[in-house]
Specification:
single chain; alpha+beta; Alpha-Beta Plaits; 4-stranded antiparallel beta sheet; two-stranded antiparallel ribbon
Length: 96
């Protein structure tokens, strides 16, 4: 049972708190996290929300997907499991 939602199309100024408030009227929000750029410390334009139940997650998708928030169109759907990525290499000094 997946209760975690992907939220795309967020404003670059949105905060975790604002994201939580946006979804709170559609059910219990267990967590809301805006993904931040580590270099600029601003939103990357997407985040994740975990709702209390599967039914609340589906209700939030129906209510918010395609709606406008701060002038941007939101994409809201069930999140997919994170894929394992290969370890990053490079960036270090190596002898030639």
């Amino acid at each position: 049972m997946n209760k975690k939602l992907y939220v795309g199309g967020l404003s670059y100024t949105v905060t975790d708190s604002q994201l939580q408030q946006l979804f709170a009227s559609h059910g219990t929000v267990e967590s809301a996290k805006v993904v931040m750029d580590r270099d600029t410390d601003r939103s990357r334009g997407f985040g994740f929300v975990e709702m209390g139940t599967q039914e609340e997650a589906e209700k939030a998708i129906t209510a918010l997907n395609g709606t406008q928030h701060e002038g941007r169109s939101l994409t809201v759907n069930l999140s997919k499991p994170r894929e394992d990525r290969p370890a990053r290499s490079g960036g270090g000094y190596r002898d030639r």
